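Before the break, one more example. Copy the sequence into your notebook; we will annotate it together after we see the structure.
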Amino acid sequence: MTEPIVNQPILDRLALLIGRVLALGFLLIAVMMTFEVVSRYGFNAPTIWAHEVSGVIAAVAFAFGGAYCMADNSHMRITIISERFGPKARRAVEILSLGVGAISLAGVVYATARMTDKALFRFSALTGEWDPERSGTSWNTAAPGFIKLALCVAAALFLLIVLQRVVALLRQR
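Here is what the structure looks like once it is written out:
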């Protein structure tokens, strides 16, 4: 069982709040898909937006899932070996694994920041108008760039929570 949200560090509280809000997005997706099916097959009037919006909501929710699980302390761990160690060795293994995770997440943040820059911050050379990467669907929104931005922000939050855990472990005696 997790500790009460008020006793947790601010980044953990933020990730838990974002995760709980985004979890409601799956209910919204179910409502939108029901509306789409009824519109399409009941009234022969399909929407052009339901699939794209549901994809964006799901992508953003899944992107923040890692930070949520880390904040909730429900991340999957394989502890069959480390459980046999004493407290000091177990702490060292935890710091090492979090360090490796931090390096990986730093790479994800860097890569998604570059992808976001290329997808979202594009401007026409002729007119100077905003020309973001488009979805290519009939609605053709700028959703890909915003999904990449969400991935970048989610990975950065996840990274900060991991670094927060490393600092907490290093401060322990």
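The mean pLDDT is 92. Residues 5-171 form one domain. Try to locate both features in your own notes.
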